[in-house]
Specification:
heterodimer; A: alpha+beta; Rossmann fold; Elongation Factor Tu (Ef-tu), domain 3; seven-stranded antiparallel beta sheet; six-stranded mixed beta sheet; 22 strands; B: alpha/beta
Chain lengths: 441, 300
């Protein structure tokens, strides 16, 4: 029945999130992207038109596309992060749509944590307001590699080039402090569609790409860390096959590469033990490979029989990680019970969970300026601040700014098991010094 | 562009393998829900990629509604034999006989009756985690679903109180009696599923391909004539060239007229489709919140 496989098109995947509050036209923008790229289906359009007749007084409400739950439709609000999918002939896209009301920080951190790109929507009439600064600062804190400032409602300021430049200059005044590498300013009208998918006839002074064209072409090839090899071991693969001698002795360490590149025959070290050995084989279901890179999922076989289990970290010889039980991190607090110094939590970092106690709250960040406010009593829901932690076992980690996968953690409340915080580790003060002698049996 | 780059299917694959291995690492007694449908076929291949050369470290579980297409069960059993996997089947018929599930006259599918059957199986085998093939692009309530979806001791989903999921760090902690549903294909679209089937050369049940079948027109869709869907007096039986786009209950799954008889044809057809996959499922049309209500009660 199945013909010999024609090659699937090799598209890559861009994940982005949209930041904006209720009236910024965020839902309209998403609706416009889906509509103009012909990603909406007839039954979805019919459902939209039905709801327009019932609740919208005849006006199609594009927010109804993303608000999927009964309570959301009843209250006209978005409760949580919703994910939308669309594709063009150039790329596949995942949109994390986060609501702009209370709990905003928590939801934006959730939606943006895996994003390649953030779109910050600015109302051209209002210019840079506190919301815009908050969104941009969060994107910076989360180290999202690409930022688009979409200056929306240009139709309401007469397509003014001067107004566009004014907002751009205002933005550029606080951007340098934030360290975002790639920022693009685009004048749009989400409602009318100008410069979203199709170029606008109203902005001849704007030589740049439309929003969709930028999303299709922005270079994301170097968004993963390819420098220091890191494999957090997820699962030990031991077939124990009674009759097949090749499988009887098979012992592999499975995981998703969290940084760098690994090659057959190269030297690796296993932490926390510190023993070094070489890579015998990079095993995959589709056959052994000579090298593998972040974020591929692989199974490593090692030359020597070292004690390795879930939660251990296999590293290469260069770009060594930090290793410590005393950590400093920025955390975003996600629970209504506030953080207080002295409390114990479960901390999940890569594939290991350890007990951790919060030893100090150094400061709380003003999210509109990223200025620290010293010595707060605690961190409340949606607060971001710098804390110190002591863990029951040392963590082997990188600073979040170097590696989002080995530099991040979550805190879990004991007893209720609620996820209460997202943490971003500050760079280590000293790197781990594994045994320099090779492992010998 | 560097060579160290994954295309969209490779990215979705490594993400799903990571999720499956987290399940194996974090749970004591997980199970994988396998129906023989296209999504769970991909799920099974991903499980092979995650765990080979070991045996799959979890049994397969199927809730048989008694309203399955026969082609689906034949395919399910063949695939399980090929893999040497362990398959547990729990039947809605048995749950009805035992008084666990109660049918209501006029229901257009056995979706609701699957819920108590599934929850009883979870209790019987003390499963702490069930892996399913649901995707966020399928349906509006599913778009709000997590990779690791927490269910309380009654099997209920609380959409307003979900655990935030950040980076690739999944909180898998449970108290006794609680349960996790895990969806490795969360970020896949219908198109991705078929492209993966093509790339991996996976076999699928024959009803996905174009064939001749006797159908009747009912509620705006073509229903397959069979013992459970006898033609009504005024209905005309038509012999049509059809296939299924999504497989649900045999009494409410609409057949679509289609000449697509290869995976390539299906991919071309989906790319040009103007209605969503679930447009042919009467069970989801019964109300705006049909899926949301089933999920809150413990559905997949």
């Amino acid at each position: 029945m199945i013909k010999p496989a024609a090659l699937s098109p090799t598209l890559d995947l861009l994940r982005f999130n949209t930041c904006g509050s209720v009236d910024d036209g965020k839902s309209t923008l998403i609706g416009r992207l889906l509509y103009d790229s012909k990603s909406l289906m007839e039954d979805q359009l019919e459902a939209l038109e039905r709801s327009a007749d019932i609740t919208g007084g005849g006006q199609i409400n594009l927010a109804n596309l993303t608000d999927g739950l009964r309570a959301e439709r009843e209250q006209g609000i978005t409760i949580d992060v919703a994910y939308r999918y669309f594709a063009t002939p150039r790329r596949k896209f995942i949109i994390a749509d986060t609501p702009g009301h209370i709990q905003y920080t928590r939801n934006m951190v959730t939606g943006a944590s895996a994003a390649n790109l953030s779109i910050v929507l600015v109302d051209a009439r209002l210019g840079v307001i506190e919301q815009s600064r908050r969104h941009t600062c969060l994107a910076s804190l989360l180290r999202i590699p690409h930022l688009v400032v979409a200056i929306n409602k240009m139709d309401l300021v007469g397509w003014s080039e001067a107004r566009f430049n004014e907002i751009r200059v205002e933005f550029e005044q606080f951007l340098p402090r934030l360290g975002i590498q790639d920022v693009k300013f685009i004048p749009i009208s989400a409602l009318l569609g100008d410069n979203v998918v199709d170029a606008s006839v109203h902005t001849p002074w704007y030589p740049g790409p439309t929003l969709l064209h930028h999303l299709e072409t922005v270079h994301i090839g170097s968004d993963w860390n390819l420098n220091g090899f890191r494999l957090p071991v997820q699962w030990v693969n031991r077939p124990h096959h009674p009759t097949d001698p090749r499988l009887h002795d098979f012992r592999g360490f499975s995981g998703q590469i969290a940084g760098g590149i690994v090659r057959t025959g190269q030297k690796v070290t296993v932490l926390p033990g510190g023993q070094s050995t070489t890579v015998k084989e990079i095993w995959t279901y589709d056959g052994p490979v000579p090298e593998a890179f972040c974020p591929q999922s692989v199974t490593l076989r090692l030359e020597h029989d070292i004690d390795v289990s879930r939660g251990h970290l296999i590293i290469g010889p260069d770009h060594l990680p930090g290793g410590s039980s005393d950590l400093r991190a920025n955390v975003c607090w996600m629970h209504s019970r506030p953080l207080q110094a002295g409390r114990k939590y479960w901390l999940k970092h890569t594939t290991q969970s350890v007990q951790a106690v919060v030893t100090a709250i150094n400061h709380r960040l003003d999210i509109s300026t990223l200025e620290p406010e010293p010595a707060p009593a605690g961190l409340a829901l949606n607060d971001i601040g710098e804390i110190r932690l002591h863990t029951a076992k040392p963590l082997f980690f990188d600073g979040y700014e170097t590696n989002r996968l080995t530099g991040s953690f979550i805190l879990i409340e004991q007893g209720t098991h609620a996820t209460v915080a997202a943490g971003m580790l500050l760079p280590p003060t000293e790197v781990v010094r594994p045994d320099t002698t090779d492992f010998v049996i | 562009m560097s060579n160290y780059h994954l295309d969209h299917l490779q990215f979705l694959e490594t993400e799903a393998i990571h999720v499956l291995r987290e399940v194996a690492g974090e749970f004591e007694r997980p199970a994988l829900l396998f129906s023989g449908g296209k999504d769970s076929i991909c799920l099974l291949r991903l499980a092979e990629k995650a765990f080979r050369p070991s045996e799959l470290p979890l049994p397969l579980l199927n809730v048989d509604t008694g309203h399955h297409f026969p082609e689906l069960n034949t395919f399910r059993d063949e695939r399980v034999r090929e893999l040497g996997a362990k398959l547990i089947i729990r039947r809605v018929e048995d749950a009805i006989a035992a008084g666990i599930a109660t049918p209501v006259p006029g229901e257009i599918s056995r979706n609701r009756l699957q819920i108590p059957t599934l929850l009883a199986a979870i209790e019987e085998f003390r499963f702490d985690c069930c892996i399913g093939g649901a995707r966020r692009d399928e349906e509006k309530a599913r778009a709000k679903e997590r990779f690791f979806s927490f269910r309380d001791s009654f099997g209920q989903w609380d959409p307003k109180n979900q655990r935030p999921e950040i980076w690739n760090l999944y909180n898998a902690r449970l108290n006794p009696g609680e349960n996790m549903r895990v969806f490795p294909l969360s970020n896949w679209t219908e198109q991705d599923v078929w492209e993966y089937i093509r790339r991996e050369r996976l076999a699928v049940p024959t009803i996905y391909f174009s064939h001749r079948r006797a159908c009747v027109r009912r509620h705006g869709q073509w229903l397959p004539v069979n013992d459970l869907v006898p033609p009504r007096p005024a209905e005309e039986i038509r012999e049509l060239v059809v296939r299924v786009r999504t497989i649900g209950d045999i009494i409410s799954t609409g057949m679509v007229e289609s000449p697509a008889d290869t995976v390539d044809d299906i991919i071309t057809e989906i790319a040009a489709a103007r209605v969503t996959e679930r447009g042919s499922r009467a069970d989801d049309k019964s109300s705006e919140a049909a899926m949301e209500d089933r999920k809150k009660a413990g559905y997949f």
